[in-house]
What we know:
The protein is 39% helix and 19% strand. By secondary structure, it is of the alpha/beta class. A 7-stranded parallel β-sheet has the order 11-12-10-13-14-9-15, with helices on both faces.
Amino acid sequence: MDTEVLPVNNDVRYLKGVxxxxxxxxxxxxxxxxxxxxxxxxRRYEDRSHFRAIADIALNDAVTLRGEVLxxxxxxxxxxxxxxIVVGDDSGMIYAIWFNQPYLKKQxxxxxxxxxxxKVEYYKGRFQITSPEYELVEGEEESVHTGRITPIYPLTExxxxxxxxxxxxxxxxxxxxxxxxxxxxxxxxxxxxLMELREAVREMHFPTSFEKLAEAxxxxxxxxxxxxxxxxxxxxxxxxxxxxxxxxxxxxxxxGEFEKKLPFRxxxxxxxxxxxxxxxxxxxxPMNRLLQGDVGAGKTLVAVFAMLLAAKNQSQAAMLxxxxxxxxxxxxTLQKVLAPFSLSIGLLTSSTPAVKRERMxxxxxxxxxxxxxxxxxMLQEDVVFKSLGLVxxxxxxKFGVHQRCALLNREPRPHQLVMTATPIPRTLxxxxxxxxAISTIRELPAGRKPIQTYWVTRDKxxxxxxxxLEKTKKGEQAYFIFPLIEETEKLDLLAAEKxxxxxxxxxxxxxxxxxxxxxxxREERDSxxxxxxxxxxxVLVATSVIEVGVxxxxxxxxxxxxxxxxxxxxxxxxxxxxxxxxKPSECFLFGEPNTEEGxxxxxxxxKTQDGFVxxxxxxxLRGPGDFLGTRQSGEPYFRVADPLxxxxxxxxxxxxxxxxxxxxxLDVSSEWQGFKKHIQQMSLNY
Length: 686
């Protein structure tokens, strides 16, 4: 949420009680203006509105008490100074103490009325509260810290709840009416039963009831979604009207030719998605489509068809992938599948020899190279296409927005297809990829056998290794995967190497065991992977570099060590490296998670192979933050809204946004001009 700024001094430094030092602390959490401060909504609330009689309290209760200060003492204990007060009401007495804050003694006077909030303890035969929140009752002034539904704000070094809460109270009382103006039409708010904006901001900070808080939150959440969706939809409209793409025709014909040359039948989902693609590609409006599908669902084949269609329309196509291993595999797939069509295909990575690279770039610039597969190396300035008509981005979440734009910012604008093997929960699809059309492949190719997945404790390890040994002696192959996390990369690498030495010298001493990790040279890695593909190596020990890009039908077993250190989606991705052939496959998760969430992750993997179900479960466990990521500025997409909890509001906001954009309401309607100005301010943040 943001607000319209009026011509007032908006610098947060000049608010009562802030000053330069606290302003710097606020700046660390993105607060520079009064407007920003009013948008710093509480992360949670505590109900301190119900007063308890002292006689009714019990040990470990979190209570709000109201009474009279009966005694104030400052005394030293073990090199510490303790402020101790005795508070009484009609039913009894309780002690409140604060450590090493001697200045607090001046705050309290015998006979004052006080409100305390804290957890009840029992010490040396008496009830007491240590370091309670307190508030001195002065006349009829509204309580800020106790005796109400109390806001709890996000903090950083140099900020404290009491002072921040007091600052917010002052800002709400003195600045809210100057800084915040309603920007949605009254009739629009009435139709949706949305609270007026100023009231919503006031209730978000200092709720008068939980019912009012729910109404206020609904308004703020709706605003965040509405702004987000309007900006996305307007961006889509600009793409359609501002840019023109090459028209890639005869999709039906080339799909037929493509199918004839395949040694297997396309799944219904693949066929449907290919038709969606050639319908998009057959117009001058730049395609902007997301292709999501589970591991092994055949997304690459869809991309290959799209690249073929581009080449047969005298346009070049580029496929951008995050790793060299994946680039090499896609390159081999293109060469194999498109061999009957006589196309020139190139592979460009940071390991491409200089002479070969120079020749390839010349052919690309002259239009002699039809298709190019590459890593980040493809984004360098000297990589120039003659007629780039299609850009495919695989594992799109591993590239920044600006990196993708480096290939798209040209005229005619290339069509774009982004692919992900991490299915996006439907709850979030509109939110994360609201500016993309979405195609989904759920159906797996025929002949795939389910992967049996087991969560294994250490006491069963010997038994599992014997089982793997038995199957490898019959000609099957196995992976052993170890986590590779940046902060402890060297330690993890040593663990993988140590396990490689152990396995190759003990259990699998009669077999060929290989080791592959991201720090190997391309030549070393290629050699090991090639030997694994041909069956010369039966057991491959690897770090998580194996997550994407390794496709080997004879690999039927996988052990994932320290499985609790991987995310649910990553575990599913790695598991997808087996089960590629017609033999039954097994995945063993070795892990002893010490959190309930970690245990749930492993249990989920043993129950389902459906990536879409797993994505939904992952969302429930982790919340939307990890799916949504952050904007370029590092700020989260939403301050209050949660696409998982607020799905109904999200749908309502999207429908409203579609109507506004389709009817050009922000341009033609006077009552929407306030919101238009608001959108213009917010567009700078997206």
